């Protein structure tokens, strides 16, 4: 999985949904299955991919496997996006000015 681009991994909507669930708190596989439209094998497959990419980690608690989010790889994406924020800020500033000008009329 090391050769797989993190953007490719995050492009899959079910994986993003699982990460959203784990952002709230640590969860067992069964709980993720209950919250999603996927079967247990489907959730397990996506969790394996996320784990191999370093986006989640797992610990065993008795019979349960508990997954939690690892945010560090997401920080790498944030760093990559940093130069683009200037573009967004410029566009948002222009929109704000346009809306203010509309209010003044």
TrEMBL record:
Q: Which CDD domains match?
A: HTH_ARSR (cd00090)
Gene3D superfamilies tied to this protein: Winged helix-like DNA-binding domain superfamily/Winged helix DNA-binding domain
Keyword Transmembrane attributed: no
Gene Ontology molecular function terms on file: DNA binding
**PROSITE patterns recorded:** HTH_ARSR_2
Identify the InterPro entries for this entry: ArsR-like_HTH, HTH_ArsR_DNA-bd_dom, HTH_MetalResp_TranReg, WH-like_DNA-bd_sf, WH_DNA-bd_sf
SMART domains from the entry?
Answer: HTH_ARSR
HTH arsR-type domain spans which residues? Answer: 1-89
Keywords from the UniProt entry = DNA-binding, Transcription, Transcription regulation
Give yes or no: UniProt keyword Transcription regulation.
yes
Report the protein name in the record.
DNA-binding transcriptional ArsR family regulator
Task: State the organism named in the record.
Answer: Caldalkalibacillus horti
